[in-house]
Amino acid sequence: MLLSSTAASAGFFSSFSQPQALPDGAQYQDGTWTGSPVRQYYGYVQAQAHVKNGKISSIDILRAPTDRRTSRYINSKALPMLEREIVMAQNTNVSYISGATLTSQAFLNSVHDALRKSLK
Description:
InterPro entries: FMN-bd (IPR007329). The structure is a single chain. By secondary structure, the chain is α+β, with helices and mostly antiparallel strands. The protein has one domain (26-117): Sufe protein. Chain: A (Alpha-Beta Complex), CATH 3.90.1010.20. The protein is 36% helix and 22% strand. The protein contains three helices and four strands, in the order αββββαα. It has helices at residues 5-9, 69-89, 101-117; strands spanning 31-34, 38-40, 43-52, 55-63. Strands 1, 2, 3 and 4 form a four-stranded antiparallel β-sheet that branches. The longest helix has 21 residues, at 69-89.
């Protein structure tokens, strides 16, 4: 997935950054927590985190770009991998998926927002 230099200079990447680490000793409150939709170059990504017994039990993908075949393919591969990594790590401090950098950034930011909302 290549982006033109015009896209880069137009500021499409400026709003992305690795989510800040959650505070040490932070505990998640049980429930279902919805992250904000995060706009990336090809559309919005939004996630929902499910917390049970203070642990991330699963992540739902509420929104991801689907209007391009390439987007559907990338999302079908990258998002399930990110979901598994987040549940195993119990936080959003996971690596981006190669070839899906924009999707990874947007997804991790949305999940991070959901988890921030769940902090006790």
